[in-house]
Amino acid sequence: MAGHTGVRGAGRDAEWAADAAEIRAALLRLRRATGLPVAFGGPLVGAGATRVRIGELSGTATAALDGLAVSAGNGLGGKAITLTRPCTVTDYRVARSISHEYDTPVAAEGLRSVLAVPVVVRRRVRAVLYGALRAPQPLGDRTLRAAVEAARDVEQTLVVRDEARALAAAGGEAARAGSWQEVRDTGAHLRGLADRLTDPALRAELLGVCARLAAADAGPPRGAQAPPLTPREVEVLVIVAEGATNAAVASRLGLRPETVKAYLRAAMRKLGARTRGEAVAVARRAGVVA
User: Fold this and answer.
1) Model-level pTM?
2) What is the mean pLDDT of residues 144-167?
3) Which residue in 51, 129, 202, 256 has a CA-CA distance of 20 to 30 Å to 80?
4) What range defines the domain where residue 261 resides?
């Protein structure tokens, strides 16, 4: 295997880093759901994204797999990339259904029964998740289903994130062009995507984008413009809009009530509102709060 030799620009680098974070969480869920002692994986990298770089390890005993890259068509993971479907072997050492370029690191980690599941987004493999036993025994349908489900979870998150990025970019272009109705439509779509997310960090990020678009939606500049709301300020306003007290907001977000008040005061100041109710009303008109 060859190491990762580079990326195609900062945008692609950021995409791979975000993919890796999703993979890390999926591997932990996979081990909890199945009891597999080892799980690992990584995003596809390189020109044309045809190699999976293994950088996320869970339950491994050595560093043999860390940083290794599996090319499309080679080994179990490479086969999964090429076929875009899950692949398994009961005993990696003697399996005839795969090539054996990577026997040394696999043997160093003591792996025998292995599965590889591709993460496919819009017909493009974005990552591969692996699960393994240190004994040559069948993994079973339940384990395979759990691995496929973990991959699907990653796929859904990546689809939403990709769509949000594309919409944010489109909203920025619309704002620069003065297409304010398009900005409003983009903000509303992003707000809908945010409501579908369970990841609080990603949800806050999308709400922050909504806030920036709402600031742009104020129309062409007429002197100084209020700074956009931060993701946390938007999140506080969203919960306040549901009728929650500051104490309830603090409980849901894991903050102190005084901190919630500070976020709310900052949001009110930026929105030019004198009360929390007025702040919610302004945010609703701007499309930041449903």
Assistant:
1) 0.61
2) 84
3) 202
4) 178-285
